Each structure stands twice: as C-alpha cells, then as structure tokens.
Amino acid sequence: MKEKIIIVEDDPAMRLGMNHFLRAYGYEATSCDDGAKALSILDSEIFDIAIVDLKLPGVDGLTLLKHIKTISPQTGVIIITAFAEVKTAVQAIKDGAFDYIAKPFTNEELLLVIERFLKFRTLEKEVKYLSELVKKKDEFEGIVSTSSVMKEIFDKIDAVAKTDVPVLIQGESGTGKELIANAIQKQSLRKEKPYIKINCAAIPETLFESELFGYEKGAFTGATETKKGKFELANGGTIFFDEIGDMPLSLQAKLLRVIEDGIVYRLGGKEPIKINVRCIYATSKNLKELIKAEKFREDLFYRINVMPIAIPPLKERKEDIPVLIEKFLKIFSEKYGKQNITISPSAYEALLSYDYPGNVRELKHAIERALLLSKDGVIDIKHLPEEFSPLSSFQKKCFISNFSLKECIENFEKNLIIKALQECGWKKTEAAKKLGISRKALWEKIKFYGIEPNP
Ligand SMILES: Nc1ncnc2c1ncn2[C@@H]1O[C@H](COP(=O)(O)OP(=O)(O)OP(=O)(O)O)[C@@H](O)[C@H]1O
Ligand SMILES: [Mg+2]
Question: How far is ligand 2, taken at its centre, from the CA of residue 258, in Å?
Fold first, then answer.
C-alpha cells in the first residue's frame, strides 16, 4: 500500500497541483484548505506525511504542526514557506517538522523531500529494531554483563544448551551460578519439561536417598505412602544439583551409578525405573581440593565435569559493575516506586572500587538498601554499608600489605578526613567540627594530603 499524505494549503492552484502530482506518483493524497478542517481530519485518520503551509486561515501551520506531533508523532511534517518566513520555518524544525520547502518549488523538489523522509523513517525503524536486538543480547536471560569473560560464558551456554551434555558451574557465592543454570535450562530443548533443583547443602544426609530416589510404602518406619524421588519427578527434564561439593560421599557413589546406568530404584523397591534427565551441577567449592581431601569422588568429578563453566568473582570483572548497578537501580526503583534516583560521585566511586566478597548478590543488596535509605533521590556514600567506605578498604589494605606504621597512620588520617568531608558535603567547617580539629588544622591537612573533592 502506498503512503498516505495530507496536503494543507489554502492556495487552490498549489493544493490541486500537488494533489494531482502525488496521486500520479501513486501516493494516497488527501487535501484541505484550512487548518481547522485539517485538525478534524487528522483526529480520525493517521497519515505518513503532512505537507503544511505555514500561513493558513483558521489554525496556522505551527499550531497544526504541534497538534500533529502530539496525536501522531510518527507522521513526517513538511512545512511550505514563503522566502520571508524562513525564521518561522526554522522554528517549525525545532518543533519537530522533518523539513521545510520554500515557495516557489517544483514538484520534483517536493518529491525529493518526501522520499528523503520515507528513507529516514525506514532507517529509523531499522535502528530501533537493531538497538532492541543489541539490548536483548546485552541481557542474557536477565543476566547483565559487558565483560568479555561473561560473553565467553554466554557463548558456551549457546553451544551446550540444546544438548544433553552435563554442565558444571563453578564460582564463589553470589556470582550468579543459579542464574546461569536457569539460563541453560530455559534455552534447552527440555525447557517445557520439569526442572527440579536440589540444594545438596541443605538436605540432611539421612534424608538424601529418599529425596533423590523416593521410597515404597513400608520401606522404613514412617513410609506410609509410596513417594517418587526427585529423579523420577524430573524425568524427561532437568535436575540442577546445587552445591554438589556438599553431597555426602556415600551418596556420590549412588549418584554416579544413576547417571551411568540411567536407572533408579525407590528405597525398598525392586522395580528399576528408567530415567532420562539432563544434569546441571554447581559448586562454590574447589572440587579438585575436595578430591585431594577425599571428600569428593574423582570418578564422579570426571563424569560431571564435561562442560565446566567457571564464573569469575565480581572483583575480577569490574567492568560489569556499572551495568549491574544500572540494572539493580531499575529493578528496585520500580519495586519501591522511586523515580529518577541518582548516585553521588563518591558513592559511585565506592561502589566501583569495592571488592565484593559476596559478589553480585552483595552489590544487589547494597543497592536495594541504599535506595531505601536515600531520601532526596540521591544515593550517597552514607547510604552504603560501612565496608564500602574508603576508610575500611584502606584498613584492609594495611593488614595485607607491607606499609610502614607512618604510612598506615598517614593514610588512615587522609581517608578519615576524606570520609568526614564526604559526609559533610565537603563543607570544611562542619567536617572540622566532626573531626574535632580547628578549621585551620583541617585546611592544612587537606593541603598536605592534596585532598580534592570528587568531580
Ligand atoms: N550477571 C548478573 N546479572 C544480574 N543479576 C545477577 C547477575 N549475577 C548474579 N545476579 C543476581 O545476584 C544474586 C545471586 O545470584 P545467584 O543466586 O545465581 O548466585 P549463586 O552463585 O548461585 O550464589 P550461591 O553460591 O550463594 O548460591 C541473584 O539475585 C541474581 O539474580
Ligand atoms: Mg546458588
């Protein structure tokens, strides 16, 4: 279908001329001679392009333009001007017109502007589509990241998700192991099938077997009903063994047998039950060390370590921190109905330089807490947990490095002053009072240490 164009022009010769010419080019042209009539047409019909004369009886061109941009922002508006009106035409462009064309003009000149707009619109759509695609790619099943290590992990997931290859996810607590396991399951061919999660650290050893394999009625005291185990419940789907390093040794042998044979027996049962499950494993422990300490079976390790995915701690991929901050701010702003939250430069710096022993989870909690504590829409250093302050990070450094006592004390003093200044919004009188020293003494120390406010 050809594009719809409305011509609003009071000069009959021009109006009819344009109408005729555009129709001859296959456009669906409509025309009218005054602004008020145009408004009522535009209220009920959507046009791709509006060609609007600046000087119109009733409602003038600029008013009409504003109206069109409100009710139909995607319509391209081309303004027709007399030479003397160029200033107003420039205003029209500022108000959202695509371009203007000065009288007298030829039909070909008009056609060029129309074609330029249509090309622009196609490109605009393409850019929008591509940027949405990029955004989607940036966010992999809710996992945000810009670091190249995480990109490699996403590629690995793409490569194995649709197979039944066992995956072993290793990473410190809070690095996103469960998120990765979920992403694999969601992209697998088993995504519509059961997805059972077992936290091996949370099930008491005595209950483990009955949980995994189920039991027959009367198998032991208290087994009043036959119960299916997790393997049976997950049949056809996926099992996620979280904290596999915490699985009791005796059970590891049994697990190995099940994954090798694909058969389980309920406790007290004689019937073999055929099992078809895809297993994903995660651990925050070093399995090789557990093997050395004889707490993990080596043969099981080789069975499950077919596709290892190692998630680095957050401090080794600090480039992810800004996008994570942005993501969590968005999540919690929506959750708590807070808008336009910003982070002060000192708080941002503290968030970027902190080491996050609790990884992404710690960052997430810090943002949530800070957002709740902030009152005027600004997250400041005082809203972050104590560990984030420059003081405590330096204290930690003092313990692990070979600084001299003098260096430690000086740095301690410097950081204490920075912290006091930050907390007082860099007001020296207030900071001096807080530190219990005179304003002059503070000023001298600021000079001595070369302390400057954050940009
Ligand atoms: N890259 C990421 N993008 C967005 N959110 C993330 C990311 N990584 C982790 N998270 C969030 O951080 C929290 C911790 O992640 P998850 O539970 O997957 O970690 P884990 O490695 O399984 O931790 P644990 O070992 O303590 O069980 C979750 O709330 C998760 O949504
Ligand atoms: Mg977990």
Answer: 24
CATH 1.10.10.10 correct for 390-455: no
Determine whether the shortest distance from the Cβ of 144 to ligand 1 is under 6 A: yes
Q: Ligand 2: distance of its center to the CA of 209 in Å? A: 22
User: Whose alpha carbon is nearest atom 2 of ligand 1?
Assistant: 143
Q: Is any ligand 1 atom within 6 A of the Cβ of residue 173?
A: yes
Ligand 2: centre distance to CA 180 (Å): 10
CA of 328 from ligand 1 middle (Å) equals 12
Q: Which residue's CA is minimally distant from atom 25 of ligand 1?
A: 173
- Proximal ligand: closest to the CA of 171: 1
Residue nearest atom 13 in ligand 1 by C-alpha distance:
361
Relative orientation angle of helices 148-160 and 177-187, to the nearest 10 degrees: 40
Architecture of domain 4-131: 3-Layer(aba) Sandwich (3.40)
What does the CA dihedral 43, 47, 52, 56 come to, rounded to 10 degrees? -20
Whether 4-131 shares its CATH topology with 390-455 is answered no
Q: Please list the pLDDT of the chain residue by residue as tens digits (455 residues).
A: 689 999 999 999 999 999 999 999 999 999 999 988 998 998 889 999 999 999 888 888 999 999 999 988 899 999 999 877 888 888 899 999 999 999 889 999 999 999 999 999 999 888 887 877 666 555 677 898 989 999 999 999 999 999 999 999 999 999 999 999 999 999 999 999 999 999 999 888 888 899 999 999 988 888 899 999 999 999 999 999 999 999 999 899 999 999 999 999 999 999 999 999 999 999 999 999 999 999 999 999 999 999 999 999 999 999 999 999 999 999 999 999 998 899 988 899 889 989 999 999 999 999 999 999 998 889 998 899 988 887 666 666 676 677 788 888 888 898 889 888 988 888 999 999 999 999 999 999 999 999 887 64
CATH class label, 315-388:
mainly alpha
Task: Check pocket membership of 178 for ligand 1, CB cut-off 6 A.
Answer: yes
Spell out the domain ranges in the chain.
4-131, 151-312, 315-388, 390-455
State whether residue 431 is helix, strand or coil.
helix
φ, ψ of residue 314 in degrees (nearest 5): -60, -35
pTM beyond 0.85, yes or no? no
Architecture of domain 151-312: 3-Layer(aba) Sandwich (3.40)
Is residue 176 within 6 Å of ligand 1 at its C-beta? yes
- Between CA 212 and CA 160 the distance in angstroms is 25
CB 364 less than 6 A from any atom of ligand 1: yes
The whole-angstrom separation of Cα 150 and Cα 323 is 13
Is the distance from CB of 160 to CB of 204 less than 8 angstroms?
no
Please count the other Cβ atoms lying within 10 Å of the Cβ belonging to residue 250. 10
